[in-house]
Design a protein that fits this description.
The structure is a homodimer of 279-residue chains. By secondary structure, chain A is α/β, with parallel strands linked by helices. The first copy, chain A, is 24% helix and 19% strand. Chain A has 2 domains: 37 residues; 205 residues, Protocatechuate 3,4-Dioxygenase, subunit A (Sandwich), CATH 2.60.130. Chain A contains 6 helices and 12 strands. In chain A, strand 7 and strand 8 form a beta hairpin. Chain A is globular. The mean pLDDT of chain A is 96. At the A-B interface, helix 1, helix 2, helix 3, helix 4 and helix 5 of A face helix 1, helix 2, helix 3, helix 4 and helix 5 of B.
């Protein structure tokens, strides 16, 4: 029989209630959750008033979620949890390109385009040629790799944030490599932008004295038969927010060169090779 | 300058972003939150899929909250967090009556009644005389103590859960002690009931193999000038759920006697003395 709850035996009192028949992984996760939650609460001597503030914060965070907005993911992002889950789940062998967060703006089914095609359909921003190779760990080109790319527009918004304002599929496209593993497309030099900051998470950042900006980046999702899926970004090398990304997505190896061009078809060129790990 | 995020430095990377100008208590709480959240995540090697389940769970928990329902409080209750916060915030000197959770069904402003009055207005259930004294730590009666009481009805519902079905203020009342510190009122012998279990928290309990029942109890909130407010219950001594209260509210010292009466005005009698701690 379980002992009655006390502050001293609080973890055991709660966890002893789980049935032996419950899913073993669920038991493991809940056991650890209760242990860490109670340790946190005891360490900081959480007051009744602070508990009420926390209940209210979580409730407002849930209430603002919609088909277009996921405030709990935003909370996970700004607490570094999303990047931690990415790190735990996507260890890479030495030499393979590192991953980073997917973010909320990926859309399945972007148009498949020809190498060299333009993805910025709204005519705004500074044009940039993206090019490079998709390689395996031995430096050999991967044929038939699908490169799904997306970025914000020159004003810092993704097409799905401005339906009816931006052209559909603006700054999005999929490209499939040939035998040489090469890719190239024309987009814009992306710009830094704030994560949605008019809700509970934005208010929290403000109270912590943190800004809501992400440094400029191009999103990539690479898939190829026999290789592990890679979700990553490349970052614009001179961005002011590289060291303070609101969601902690920057890795040094993902900072790309952006070269200013003269007398060329685009204003910038950004070379980057991707190396995929085998499955 | 902050180092880029890695799984190893994850806590430092996030917490270094807080401004020195932020509220010191907020910094302290967030610092501990990030430390415990990341330790939990690393300990259990949280998968991407489990992270998605957690985001969805929190979102549904927020969505079901309304003016009549607070699913995050329910979540706090079933994880033992509400009782832990009560224990941290309400230490009592030896000899004082112990506290327990307020619960979601207290209503401010119940009618002030005369000692001995009846609070069960719907004519249902087994009647019970509640009586005893309000005392200080030295055993002296406290005059002018306000005793605010509330319970479910014989079917396990509070009046506010059944507006239009139960009479207003059914099973509620306030009583003020005289010079002898004595109180008495007639209510019902309360019954055990399930917490609302048709939402995400109820589903979680089911998956953990836990039942949603609370053992039968009478709620009390005692206030008196010069003494600390006491929020507590008395529990019906023979209840089948005493050792497995879904919200962990039971303390041994709060289990009251319920005596069967013969040839009396009520079917039961429950004596209980309350001892208040000085402010």
């Amino acid at each position: 029989m379980t002992a009655y709850f006390t502050a001293e035996n609080s973890v055991a009192a709660v966890n002893a209630r789980m049935s032996d028949d419950a899913n073993p992984r669920l038991r493991e996760v809940l056991d650890a959750l209760v242990r860490h939650l109670h340790a946190f609460t005891k360490e900081i001597d959480l007051t009744q008033e602070e508990w009420e503030l926390a209940i209210d914060f979580l409730t407002r965070t849930g209430k603002i979620c919609s088909d277009e907005r996921q405030e709990f993911i935003l909370l996970s992002d700004v607490l570094g949890l999303s990047m931690l889950v990415d790190a735990i789940n996507n260890p890479r062998p030495e030499g393979a390109t590192e991953s980073t967060v997917l973010g909320p703006f990926h859309v399945v089914g972007a148009p498949v385009r020809e190498m060299g095609d333009r993805i910025n359909l709204d005519g705004k921003g500074e044009s940039c040629l993206y090019e490079g190779r998709v390689l395996d760990l031995e430096g050999k080109p991967i044929a038939g790799a699908c490169i799904d790319v997306w970025s914000d527009n020159a004003e810092g918004f993704y097409d799905v944030q401005q339906p009816g304002i931006q052209p559909k599929w603006n700054n999005r496209g999929r490209f499939v490599t040939g035998a040489d593993g090469r890719y190239s497309f024309v987009g814009i030099k992306p710009v830094s932008y704030p994560i949605p900051d008019d809700g509970p998470v934005g208010k929290l950042l403000e109270q912590l004295g943190r800004h809501p900006y992400r440094p400029a980046h191009m999103h990539y999702m690479l898939t190829a038969s026999g290789f592990r899926k890679l979700v990553t970004h490349t970052f614009v090398g001179d961005d002011a927010y590289l060291a303070s990304d609101a969601v902690f997505g920057v890795k040094k190896s993902l900072i790309a060169r952006f070269e200013r061009l003269e007398n060329a078809a685009t204003e910038w060129r950004s070379p980057f090779d991707f190396v995929l790990a085998p499955e």
